[in-house]
């Protein structure tokens, strides 16, 4: 683990102890740490993809009905960046829009597949709202740089699906307080690969079978919004990205 992430976890431990959470409970909570990756348009980390276009798809794949958020080059991802069973090569393309009921999908383009560029044509997207152009104008553009990060739960449980996320974790009597400490320590990032989601919609590891592929935080009129691409681990291993579920948290 790099120095940055050691310091993050040390700060979390110190803050938890200062809030009088018993040390044994803090250490048990630390066992839930998962690797994740911050994806930003700048930084010193390696380039692992691109925000926005171009949209490069095989000829037999239909043009998607949502904006392209990011394309991730799986071969460029360090293996230790996440604990997800991601493809070793090829590209993952995340399409989405922060509509209340969740809009988006994930496409996997294998390495070596013949592709052609598709037009960036917002007129073909669903008429989601009057402020569609403004919202899409907030989507990042350019290279994706990766920074190794760590993740802990933001909610009170990691072994029961919503709405059970508010109950304590068995064996972790201070889980809600510990999650609150982590939320106070964590700085919001635009794009996060892997780890735990930052609200109940994104806590994809909650039921033990699903994982969070990507979280995208973007401004939406009236406040912020977050898109979560969630998939069952078995479907990820089988490359069944058509089974990805897209969830949105938005407080208008």
TrEMBL record:
Pfam families the UniProt entry points to: DUF1963
Domain of life, source organism: Bacteria
Name of the protein in its database record: DUF1963 domain-containing protein
Organism: Lentzea kristufekii
